[in-house]
Amino acid sequence: MIFIIKSMKTIVGARILVLQEQKTAEKKKAQHKKLSKKDRPKLAEGTEIRCNDGNILPIFSYVVQQLLGSGGFGDVYRAKKIGTTKYYAIKTELNEFNGKKIDRLKIEVAVMIAFTLVKDPERRKHFVQLYDKGQTDTFKLIVMQLLGPSIEDLRRHILCTDFTKATAMRISQQALQGIWDLHLVGFIHRDIKPQNFAIGTGDKDDIIYLLDLGIAHRFIDKHTNKIKPPRSKVRFMGTVRYASRNCHRCKEQSRKDDLETWIYMSVELYASVILPWRRVIDKMAVLAEKDKFFVEPSPEIYKKAPTGYKSISKYVDNLTYEEEPNYILIQSALEEIIKGECIDIRQPFDWAGKMIQKTERDNRRRAKEKEVIERKKIDTRLSKDVGFFLNQHPATTSKK
């Protein structure tokens, strides 16, 4: 089924038809093979996705234009709504992956639907809008708001340098607001990191979005509206560099843990080499470094990151599992950092103006790639025609 959100309160069911998929996706045997991220079935460029309400005529269709990125269990594509100039993101997840049922997209949808019930637009603005959802024999998929590059991609591939203090602080502030808003609808994220924050497109490139909610966890019981008791043991969920200490210890995570991972991400925004454990692979060694971060942090950290994050770290470290964090207190601490460090947050983001240039470069690159493909098709047709002609009219030689 697809959910087409016609308004904030009205959700109408529909079903989805995929007219074309790659041949590997159509072979059921491929589902039983051990697949890696590279060789699992994907939607081919040009795939048409048609949405309807059960009648013969479709309501509208999308065409897949480009693979934007791949995660552990799914892929994200750029798609165009046929007959319009509007673009969307389509995220897919295999129904089964190496014989195991995958339900991460289901969690993402649950969070997105929870935000449709939030009346304050300011509390929704750091999360993408869900438009449709559906399922084929191979994939589950959702159609959602298209975003720009992630914070990590901006720093590493577009700016190719560390952020200025003003940009780092503004990202930290908006990320904190997004985490707070997520907690308000009863979920924790459990994988806060620069790769899971992205900017909007067009005039929304100054808004930071929190995404990739596949391992989010509902910490509020929806029946009792109370905090769920912690489970005795939970498997590691997150990314080693940014994961909280409770995550390392296989303990139930809470709102405190999202804030702890936000601190690691925030100080790293000021310098990509700032975390002492950034190149450490062993999880227990990383845990030891993180324990040290809260007791006696390396002086090198706060040579580049504002020292005001120390007081925030101390506050977060003392939070308990059920305790509701004082987000306003943390926001105030960030304001004190801005004053103490003389950070002018009125400055534009470091990427302002550069995204248009990137879009133009990408358009030129895609046009060249398309031209090469079309040229190869023409060359192939010509060679076939020549071959056919020679077969029908073999060359002859005349004797003098």
Description:
- GO terms for molecular function: ATP binding; protein kinase activity.
- It is a single chain.
- With 400 residues, the chain is α+β, with helices and mostly antiparallel strands.
- It folds into two domains: 2-145, Phosphorylase Kinase, domain 1; 151-340, Transferase(Phosphotransferase) domain 1 (Transferase(Phosphotransferase), domain 1), CATH 1.10.510.
- The chain contains eleven helices and 14 strands.
- β1 and β2 (11-18) form a beta hairpin.
- Mean pLDDT is 86; it is low at 1-15.
Mean pLDDT: 86
Number of domains: 2
Structural class: alpha+beta
Question: Uncertain regions: pLDDT < 50 for 5+ in a row?
Answer: 1-15
CATH class of the largest domain: Mainly Alpha
Query: Within the CATH hierarchy, at the fold level, what is the topology of the largest domain?
Result: Transferase(Phosphotransferase), domain 1
Count of DSSP E strands? 14
Which strands sit side by side, in order, in the main sheet? 1-2-3-4-5-6-10-9
Distance between the termini: 78 Å
How do the SSEs run, as a string of H and E?
EEHEEEEEEHEEHHEEEEHHHHHHH
Q: Give the second-level CATH assignment, the architecture of the largest domain.
A: Orthogonal Bundle
In the CATH hierarchy, what is the superfamily of the largest domain? Transferase(Phosphotransferase) domain 1
**What is the helix content?**
25-40%
Shape: globular
Instruction: Provide the gyration radius in Å.
Output: 25 Å
In DSSP terms, counting alpha (H) and pi (I) runs of 4 or more, how many helices? 11
Content of β-strand: 15-25%
Biggest sheet overview: 8 strands, antiparallel
